[in-house]
Amino acid sequence: MLKYQDTILVLRKPNGVTAIQGNVFVNRGGHLDFDTSHQLARSSVVTLNEGELYLGNWGGDITQSFKQLIVDNSGVLYFEGDDGSSSIHKLYLDDLLIHASGELIFKRWKEGRDFILVKKTSENVEDALKKMKFEGYDPSKIQLADYNNEYWEVKGAPEPATYGAGLMLGVLGLVRYRRRQNSLR
């Protein structure tokens, strides 16, 4: 939820133009919003200190790459889009560092639509996994999956209650299907 005193920087340069060439610090109440792809220089370092990054869907698919994401205290990575959105969000990081007291929270992340990709050469990614939370997902099941020969994909796993709800919907669908088949006979 945005407050009156929040600072929002929306990056929406068109035609592959890089909006920021240097490093970015997003502090408490700050929101950095990527509405189109390639808004930061590939060599940029982004530091979140109780700030938020948004990957929007204003311009369709969003791909953003930068050198390092550092999280001091806490940070939020927010994926914009409803469940019906077909926009793909990809965030490529050479390194992901979450300091000892830090925490990175992923909001509205959806498997198959949103990708957090960290280079396999990152020295900090294993430690960072322990300091991440995917909203609505089991924190003990955050994992690295092989994305390609250069990048890991950071993924969440649904909470056990989500599995139960999905299973229940499947069972109800099967019962309804069988009843329909029996009534047609």
Describe, in plain words, how this protein is organized in 3D.
This is PEP-CTERM protein-sorting domain-containing protein. This protein is α/β, with parallel strands linked by helices and 185 residues long. The protein has one domain. The protein has two helices and eleven strands, in the order E-E-E-E-E-E-E-E-H-E-E-E-H. Strands 1, 2, 3, 4, 5, 6, 7, 8, 9, 10 and 11 form an eleven-stranded mixed beta sheet that branches.
Roughly what fraction of the amino acids lie in strands? 35-45%
Q: Which regions are unreliable across 5 or more consecutive residues at pLDDT < 50?
A: none
Can you tell me the overall shape? Answer: globular
Which structural class should the secondary elements be placed in?
A: alpha/beta
Average of the residue pLDDT scores: 85
Run of helices and strands: EEEEEEEEHEEEH
Using only CA atoms, what is the Rg? 19 Å
Task: Give the count of helical stretches.
Answer: 2
Organism: Cephaloticoccus capnophilus
Protein name: PEP-CTERM protein-sorting domain-containing protein
